[in-house]
Amino acid sequence: MIPIVVPVVAVALLAAGYAVAATTGLFVSAVLITVLVVLAVRASLHGSARPGIPERAARRPDFPGYAKLAAAVAWSDTSRHAWDCDLRPILVRLVGPADGRQVLGEDLWPLADPRRSRSGDRDAPGPSRETLERILDRLEAR
What we know:
By secondary structure, the protein is mostly helical. It has 2 domains: 1-59; 65-141, no CATH class. Helix content is 67%, strand content 0%. The protein has 6 helices and no strands. The chain has helices at 2-47, 65-75, 80-95, 100-104, 109-112, 129-141. The relative contact order is 0.09.
């Protein structure tokens, strides 16, 4: 019903405008119809926001250290230097230098050993995500 009413009303407004003021009335009526159509489309689009989807899908975390931690994890496998400079200090704080060898085991302890010097090689890949997952699994099992 509405798809038929809208063009009929538009034609009636155009005819009334032309009857009242000839070409000028036709132009004013056309502009008025265009403005009304744009406002109606804008209102229908604004009102059709999908419920259940938050306005800001990605929001800032509530604690500032999250960004640093997320960046350290994201860059850790790109280079050995990134692992040594960013992620290893975090692991040392989590494990503690005293009991780290017992928690992580002999195979993973060299990756978190605070006494090891930092790598200057930015081209050598860092430990893989799987290795990081193994370290985290052992930390959680503690």
